[in-house]
């Protein structure tokens, strides 16, 4: 494996990121090769994460942020454990831990509103990862080169979800306002997004690294848009991939349980109890906001759409990735 190096995020966009998204994250690093953007504490956790022991029956959900992660986690959990499992009412972060959470928060982070064993507090998620029973269900936003090295030797099941970057950007903007204290406006955020200067960027290498692996037996590549179009079909696809055979009735129950309407009212998954930035701007925002396809059309200007088009076609040059090229 090629050696990697860290350096502070640099340039005007790096400074802008540091200035506008540092409330929770504190600061950011760029990892090379790849210009990968990570929280500053990643360096302290890198070796532990890289050496994390993988089990063959692990099930991972990996995504770029705001690509339908929570949605696919709940679908996957219900397929793996069964919709009637007694732990289905537990908070998602307890039953489907967020692999790199501990590198996203300061070691001294505390909040009197949280219970001592809350997964949001430093070290607690790592403890859950150490003690979770098999088959383990684990979520990550980490870029492919930063995932545990045993992933590629042991080959656990990995469900990768991608989404139209235009919708990702809009969703990420509102998410960053609610959870990360982002105080500027959408045009500023679009600039950061297109500069690939956000946590877990770059967008396209994140997606294309897994697209290139889509034919491997242990990887299922799913699009957010497929989930919106026909959720029962995706539930069956996930079940088939994981070697499960739910009945037609169970598939429909899972699809109903995982519909946007149900999920947005479900306290175990809607993350409304998670730590949120304390400002007026985000008070009314919901973690599960709209979950729509094409919401970008309600927010992006013509010049921003043009910038997205140039950025997309530049990164997809020479790639057989067929989606999100619809600009005419």
Topology:
Blueprint (H helix, E strand, L loop, with lengths): L4 E4 L2 H10 L1 H4 L2 E5 L3 E4 L2 H9 L8 E5 L5 H13 L10 H4 L28 H8 L5 E4 L10 H4 L2 E6 L2 H16 L5 H9 L8 H9 L7 E5 H6 L1 H11 L6 H10 L2 H6 L36 H15 L12
Parallel strand pairs: 4-5, 4-6, 6-7
Antiparallel strand pairs: 1-2, 2-3
Helix pairs in contact: 12-13
Summarize the structure.
This protein is an alpha/beta fold and 328 residues long.
Instruction: Note the beta-strand portion.
Output: 5-15%
Query: What is the share of helical residues?
Result: 40-55%
Mean pLDDT across the residues is 92
Q: If helices are DSSP runs of H or I spanning 4 or more residues, what is the number of helices? A: 15
Rg over alpha carbons:
19 Å
Strand order of the largest sheet: 5-4-6-7
**Major sheet:** 4 strands, parallel
Q: Could you give the distance between the termini?
A: 41 Å
Please mark out the parts with pLDDT under 50 across 5 or more consecutive residues, or reply none.
none
Q: Tell how many strands the DSSP assignment holds.
A: 7
Notes on the protein architecture:
The chain is α/β, with parallel strands linked by helices and 328 residues long. It contains 15 helices and seven strands. The strands form two sheets. Strands 5-4-6-7 form a four-stranded parallel β-sheet, sandwiched between helices. Strands 1-2-3 form a three-stranded antiparallel β-sheet, with helices on one face. Strand 2 (28-32) and strand 3 (36-39) form a beta hairpin. The mean pLDDT is 92.
């Amino acid at each position: 494996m090629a050696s990697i190096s860290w350096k502070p995020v640099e340039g005007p966009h790096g400074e802008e990121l540091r200035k506008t998204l540092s409330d929770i994250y504190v600061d950011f690093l760029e990892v090379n090769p790849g210009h990968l953007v990570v929280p500053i504490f990643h360096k302290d956790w890198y070796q532990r994460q890289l050496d994390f022991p993988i089990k063959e029956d692990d099930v991972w959900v990996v995504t770029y942020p705001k690509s339908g992660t929570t949605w696919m986690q709940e679908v996957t959990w219900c397929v793996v454990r069964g919709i009637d499992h007694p732990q289905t009412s537990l908070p998602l972060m307890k039953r489907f831990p967020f692999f790199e959470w501990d590198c996203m928060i300061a070691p001294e982070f505390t909040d009197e509103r949280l219970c001592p064993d809350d997964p949001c507090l430093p070290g607690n998620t790592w403890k859950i990862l150490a003690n979770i029973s098999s088959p383990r269900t684990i979520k990550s936003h980490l870029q492919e080169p930063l995932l545990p090295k045993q992933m590629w030797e042991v080959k656990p099941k990995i469900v990768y979800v991608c989404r139209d970057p235009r919708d990702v950007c809009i969703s990420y903007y509102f998410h960053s306002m609610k959870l990360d204290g982002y105080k500027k406006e959408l045009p500023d955020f679009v600039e950061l997004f297109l500069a690939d200067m956000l946590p877990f960027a770059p967008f396209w290498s994140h997606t294309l690294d897994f697209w290139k692996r889509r034919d491997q037996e242990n990887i299922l590549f799913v699009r957010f848009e497929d989930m919106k179009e026909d959720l029962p079909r995706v539930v069956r696809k996930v079940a088939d991939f994981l070697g499960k055979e739910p009945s037609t009735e169970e598939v429909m129950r899972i699809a109903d349980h995982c519909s946007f309407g149900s999920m947005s009212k479900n306290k175990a998954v809607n993350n409304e109890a998670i730590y949120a930035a304390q400002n007026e701007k985000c008070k009314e925002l919901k973690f599960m906001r709209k979950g729509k396809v094409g919401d970008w059309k309600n927010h992006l200007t013509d010049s921003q759409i043009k910038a997205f088009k140039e950025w997309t076609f530049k990164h997809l040059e020479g790639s057989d990735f067929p989606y999100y090229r619809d600009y005419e």
